[in-house]
Amino acid sequence: MINITHHGATSGVTGSCHELTLSSGQGASAGILIDCGLFQGQEKGDGASASDLSVDFPIDHIRALVVTHVHIDHVGRIPYLLAAGFEGPIICSEPSAIMLPEILEDALKIGFTRDRQLIERVLGLIRSRLVPVPYGQWHEVFAEPDSSLSVRLQRAGHILGSAYVECEAVAGEEQERIVFSGDLGAPHAPLLQEPASPERADRLVIESTYGDKDHESRETRRYRLKVILERALADGGTVLIPAFSIGRTQELLYEIEGLIHEFGTDCVTDGLAWSDLEIVVDSPLAAEFTRIYRQLKPFWSGEAVELLRQGRHPLSFEQLTVINSHENHLNAVDYLARSLRPCVVLAGSGMCAGGRVVNYLKAMLGEARNDVLFVGYQAAGTPGRDILAYGPRGGWVELDGERFDIRARVHQVGGYSAHAGQSDLIRFIEGIPVKPYEVRIVHGDASAKQAFKQRLESLGYSGIVIPG
Ligand SMILES: [Zn+2]
């Protein structure tokens, strides 16, 4: 028997966590987990405590954890998995192996403990378990007389190091190729190569964040970004971009550098040339991941590498200021809130549910000259979703238990989601030479999953399952 179980990302309190289990005739079983994440937004529930996050399913038979990418909704529960006694390796791509301890250090500090020694111990444990596997290379997880499992990671184009996982499973007479998509990127994303479809997938577990809609094309959104920035900065003030530390921030920097390069001496607003526009990244974590992105150039797309060859520095240009210390952060909020000087600030978290962006929002939402620009998915129940929904109607948002009126203008550019749109997901599936006999749709709002299911059925796919 070869079974797929979902411990999260269907509904409920947790993020992505899927299990692939092989059972042989004798009743013994062995399996792997694909991702072990936390979720953000209303799915977190009220008063989610550590006990809600603790791993509540049997793990004795789990031989390995495979990580698709290091976003917190895919890796955030790893410390809880270790606490539950998981002793296997953590298999991931080479860039993910570098980034995973960094992201978990941050997560541990925020949600787990302030005890430095304990954090170091957990991180040490995680580092000792990491097994980086190059893209495109089979890796044997276990091989026993009557069952075996190998995995292969392929580029997913979502964030640096992201992968989809091909599993070659043999249990007794059964032999199957099962593919877990993780999060898939959109084609033509800046910086990263786009994903290619699997050569085979008897069963496919696929994300559906944008299963119900398509994104703007790269060129359209790039010029929309330009127009929004020009309009937003026309009356001075700050354009605040809540951005995820990993992926979105680097894509935006890349795109903004491109605009600065292309429109250099043109005015972004009266008296201010594009080449003089100040861009601020106010997030130690985003700064750290931007540094790692810069280090890992071998994993960049051909287009990005070509820019480097031309002497450009898409992730470290001269108009870019990085704010690290908390004191400088508070000073920047204070200064920018009072000054009329046009400026673009990227700060996390991406859904405004915490992080330094909250201080900016509190200081800036009340002023019409400021603008908030959303570039990513806003989960239901997050302040980001509320600002997006109520901001344009002159509504309010609750931040840290207090109401803030929204007079700042609110914008959204769709394409920087780092997630594939519906057509991209369809292309990924249609690229598989033989149709999978089962497609499991996970990791999306109910409406997105439903729309995606209908689209697949209209294309002649059967065996579409929405686990829940
Ligand atoms: Zn992701």
Commentary on this structure:
The protein is an alpha/beta fold. It has helices at 50-53, 72-75, 78-83, 94-111, 116-129, 218-233, 248-263, 284-295, 302-309, 326-338, 357-364, 383-390, 422-430, 446-458; strands at 2-6, 18-23, 29-34, 62-66, 90-92, 130-132, 138-144, 147-155, 163-171, 174-180, 203-207, 238-242, 267-269, 272-273, 279-282, 320-323, 343-347, 371-374, 396-399, 402-405, 409-412, 438-442, 464-465. The protein is built from 14 helices and 23 strands. The strands form 5 sheets. A 7-stranded mixed sheet has the order 7-8-9-10-11-22-23, covered by helices on one side. It has a 6-stranded mixed sheet with strand order 1-2-3-4-5-6. The protein is globular, with a radius of gyration of 22 Å. Helix 4 (94-111) runs antiparallel to helix 8 (284-295) and helix 10 runs parallel beside helix 11. The structure holds zinc ion. Zinc ion binds at residues 69, 71, 158, 183.
* Largest beta-sheet details: 7 strands, mixed
Distance between the termini: 21 Å
- Which runs of at least 5 residues are low in confidence (pLDDT < 50)? 42-50
Q: Could you say which small molecules are bound to this protein?
A: zinc ion
Radius of gyration: 22 Å
Number of strands: 23
Number of helices in the DSSP assignment: 14
What is the arithmetic mean of pLDDT?
Answer: 90
**Widest β-sheet, arrangement of strands:** 7-8-9-10-11-22-23
Strand content: 15-25%
Class derived from helix and strand content: alpha/beta
Principal-axis shape equals globular
The percentage helix is: 25-40%
